[in-house]
């Protein structure tokens, strides 16, 4: 269990839309892994990447430090805004906001799809592009999941 994150109905819907958009075709587990990473970022509260993320909306719309580029591809390409979550999707988002974390992604703070739009996944890299403080943890379908290197974000990895 993770920390419960204060939220409202709009936060539930936005998290559900992000979970659907990011994990399209990757099933319930993939959506839960995406939700877990977003919630982990709110819990982490560590510099330089996740300091000051006070709520789920801050995490969803966060930009890469020093840029105006959103962390999450669906925010960048607009697919976040076209998702229509059903009640099961909304309940998955509520579960994450109430503290559920996918066990496999429990320590993940990053993920990415190295082959967007393809039916296959290129090999995961040892570190995530543009994030040298990461190390590869595992792959789930088209996504590669990363944790912080030892000593990074001790506030989260205690």
Automatic annotation (TrEMBL):
Superkingdom to which the source organism belongs: Bacteria
UniProt keyword annotations, A-Z: Hydrolase
Alphabetized Pfam families for the sequence: Hydrolase_2 (PF07486)
Cell wall hydrolase SleB domain mapped to chain residues: 25-146
Name of the featured protein: Cell wall hydrolase
Gene Ontology MF term list: hydrolase activity
């Amino acid at each position: 269990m993770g920390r419960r994150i204060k939220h409202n109905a709009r936060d539930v819907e936005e998290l559900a839309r992000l979970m659907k958009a990011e994990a399209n075709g990757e099933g319930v587990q993939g959506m839960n892994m995406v939700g877990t990473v977003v919630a982990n970022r709110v819990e982490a509260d560590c510099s330089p990447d996740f300091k000051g993320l006070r709520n789920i909306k801050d995490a969803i719309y966060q930009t890469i430090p020093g840029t105006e580029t959103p962390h999450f591809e669906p925010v960048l390409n607009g697919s976040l805004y076209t998702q229509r979550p059903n009640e099961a999707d909304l309940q998955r988002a509520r579960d994450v906001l109430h503290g559920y974390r996918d066990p496999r992604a429990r320590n993940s703070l990053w993920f990415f799809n190295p082959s967007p739009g393809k039916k296959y996944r290129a090999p995961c890299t040892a570190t995530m592009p543009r994030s040298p403080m990461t190390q590869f943890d595992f792959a789930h379908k088209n996504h590669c999941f990363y944790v912080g290197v030892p000593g990074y974000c001790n506030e989260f990895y205690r």
